[in-house]
Design brief:
single chain, 49% helix, Tetrahydropterin Synthase, Chain A, alpha+beta, 265 residues, 3-stranded antiparallel sheet
Length: 265
């Protein structure tokens, strides 16, 4: 009687153990890939489900977006400039079965593929495009990575070029180039202003030639402006005021010695 009770107790313990091993619970963002006697038996989750202990083996997969910080890669651009580039890759597992069966370690494989693709793509463009076309390059890298990881059940959602480090000599060269561009624009603007001014002066000379009294009025207006500034002493001969009879002395003269000195010859 005692032996039968012990056997029953042992059977009960074994049954309880097998029951606890057969019940599995996964979270909303997780899935479980089940292999039954080594063969793929499907994907379960989320929530509660049952497996056959000892016969079934499970591998848990996280479906949340994963971030890969791609280490700095030394890239030689198409115009033979060496730069250090690092990026951030965002991806998620879309098909847990493929992620387990098609690739040994999808995390490592995706990270190494990102590094290789980054060097290959950026090595085919010029430095100016690398610095100015970040959005276009991000999209191109994302499309290439997504195409290669699709057989693994991986979806690359975004790629961001985070930093581009240039050599010190190249930074100085870019600064000189920018300064030269600004100097070029300033010279073009100055030349264009001179051209417009010369056209205006030519038109003014033509009008003055047609109406000689206009230049006399302009001369008187100039003298009035000089008088308002109080920085010149005007010496004129009697009679008509002519441009050849005007002599200007700068305001640098001592005001105490020449204060109010105006002489009419």
């Amino acid at each position: 009687m005692l032996i039968s009770e012990i056997n029953a107790l042992i059977a009960l313990v074994i049954a309880a153990f097998l029951l606890t091993q057969s019940i599995k619970i996964v979270r909303e963002y997780e899935r479980v890939v089940i292999f039954r006697l080594g063969r793929f038996a499907g994907v379960k989750g989320p929530g509660v489900f049952f497996i056959i202990p000892i016969i079934d083996t499970v591998i848990k997969i996280d479906l949340r977006i994963v971030t890969i910080d791609v280490q700095k890669q030394v890239v030689i651009t198409r115009d033979n400039v060496t730069v250090d580039v690092d990026a951030v890759i965002y991806y998620r597992v879309m098909d847990p079965g493929k992620a387990v069966i098609q690739v040994e370690n999808y995390r490592v494989a995706t990270s190494l593929l990102a590094q290789t693709t980054l060097r290959d793509v950026l090595g085919q463009i010029d430095l100016d495009d690398l610095l100015s076309k970040r959005e276009e390059l991000n999209k191109r890298l994302q499309e290439i990575l997504d195409r290669h990881t699709d057989p693994w059940g991986i979806k690359v959602t975004a790629v961001t070029l985070r930093d581009v480090s240039l050599p010190e000599s190249m930074m100085r060269a870019i600064a000189k180039q920018a300064e030269a561009e600004r100097e070029k624009r300033s010279r073009v603007i100055l030349a264009d202003g001179e051209l417009q001014a010369s056209k205006t002066m030519t038109e003014a000379a033509r009008l003055y030639g047609e109406a000689p009294v206009a230049i006399k009025l302009r001369e008187l207006q100039t003298l009035a402006e000089i008088a308002r500034e109080k920085n010149l002493i005007i010496v004129t001969s009697g009679g008509d005021v002519g441009s050849g009879n005007v002599v200007g002395l700068t305001s640098a003269l001592n005001k105490d010695q020449y204060k109010g000195a105006v002489t009419n010859q």
